[in-house]
Amino acid sequence: MDTATRTTSSSRSVLHFPAKCDELNFTHQIGSISNTSLNDVENAINIAHQAFLSWKDSSIAERQNCLKQAADLIFQKKDELKELLISEHGGMLWEAETDFYLGSGVMSMYAQAPDDLLIPKEISEETGWIRIHKRPKGVISAIVPWNMPIVLTMMKLGPLLLAGNTVVLKPSPFSALALTQLLAKIAAVFPKGVINVVHGDADVGNILTSHPLVRKVAFTGGTATGAAVMASAAQTIKDVTLELGGNDAAIILEDIDFQSILPKLLKGVFTRSGQICFAVKRIYVPKDKLDQYFDLFCEEVDKYKVGHGLNSAANFGPLNNKKQWAIVQKFIENAKASDQCEVRELGQKLNPEQWDNGYYVLPHVVKTLDNSLEIVQQEQFGPIIPLIGYETVEQAIEYANDNEQGLCSSVWSDNIELAYDIAQKIEAGSTFINSHSFDSLQLGMPFGGIKQSGIGRELDINETLKSYLEPHSIRLIK
């Protein structure tokens, strides 16, 4: 397999999803995609390796030109593929459009990266010189999830291709059709074999993470799978970039008008039905205002409408798959069974007669003082959010840090200096002040987690490029 346009079938995955919002009285098949045989995965890696032998010597200008063409293609294909993407992953129209916009922006950013990040550096000495070359690693395996597949793929392709590597990429089985069609177009602007796409489950992933010709693994997904990826890559001492789960804390200080920040806060909670690694998943509020804030929060959430992603009346859509739906249902059941919290189911069903045709969940809001509850300590990845009361700011920071994950976080206050001081004490890869959503991100800003939320950074041109390059020092002593 030499480009994204070719696969060989060992089995066939048939995907069934709700149709457009004006056809919601049935479920239909939107397409099928072939799983790649293990032999063809092996072939894809070998082809990527052969392509690397010439691509690594290509000029920086040639690579930048290919990336620019890719950025333009992503933007051009947005209107053609966005509805297919929605049918696959259950998101809203604006969310799918954002995925394409961000993906195009990422590729454009790397297309404009300064040349000096890739050219050799020379250090002169009295006794000679040192020249430090920056070599591409080789074949990179990239494994991407279903929730924002376009931008998460480009966050890997942009830097690895600019650095002179080749790639074998595996999309998620839950969101592969639109991405694969897009990659077929992108692959065509690069030399043959530079971009390769395979499909499958864990058996395919195991080859991609353990094969001796693969020199680095770039993975975005859950923490448990990330640990398995890391263990597999260790067999051949591969470098890894892991962007894993998040259980992001938002700390609300008592000086801010809670009602005024609700639109921004709710966007951070419920975009993609809460199925975003850096969504707000824990909200800490002053204990003496917990009841008041809980009521205000629920009042706004109760206005939400849940339905198909192409229904303009919907605020958010269904969960992506049965497994995730079952996980979220378990969170809700356990929270309701606990005597340490109050749970409210809110919002309205759009087309309720069709809810059996999708993994729909109404928003749930939880009130508690217990930071040790499962609903607080574990990433929900769905439309359920706890509000936790704290006694002091120091306790809020302690609560926020008392978690094995550390992707993003936020502090909300009218006192920016105080918020900044608190932000520095939070254990996370990023902390936002008075925002916590896609709007909080900026191309060029390092993105990634600490603790069990990952290894490495993406989006930062300098740091990310370094992770796809090997320094080669050459020294002359006269």
From TrEMBL:
<keyword id="KW-0560">Oxidoreductase</keyword>
<dbReference type="InterPro" id="IPR015590">
    <property type="entry name" value="Aldehyde_DH_dom"/>
</dbReference>
<protein>
    <submittedName>
        <fullName>Aldehyde dehydrogenase family protein</fullName>
    </submittedName>
</protein>
<feature type="active site">
    <location>
        <position position="243"/>
    </location>
</feature>
<feature type="domain" description="Aldehyde dehydrogenase">
    <location>
        <begin position="28"/>
        <end position="472"/>
    </location>
</feature>
<dbReference type="InterPro" id="IPR016161">
    <property type="entry name" value="Ald_DH/histidinol_DH"/>
</dbReference>
<dbReference type="GO" id="GO:0016620">
    <property type="term" value="F:oxidoreductase activity, acting on the aldehyde or oxo group of donors, NAD or NADP as acceptor"/>
</dbReference>
<dbReference type="InterPro" id="IPR016162">
    <property type="entry name" value="Ald_DH_N"/>
</dbReference>
<dbReference type="InterPro" id="IPR016163">
    <property type="entry name" value="Ald_DH_C"/>
</dbReference>
<dbReference type="Pfam" id="PF00171">
    <property type="entry name" value="Aldedh"/>
</dbReference>
<dbReference type="InterPro" id="IPR029510">
    <property type="entry name" value="Ald_DH_CS_GLU"/>
</dbReference>
<comment type="similarity">
    <text>Belongs to the aldehyde dehydrogenase family.</text>
</comment>
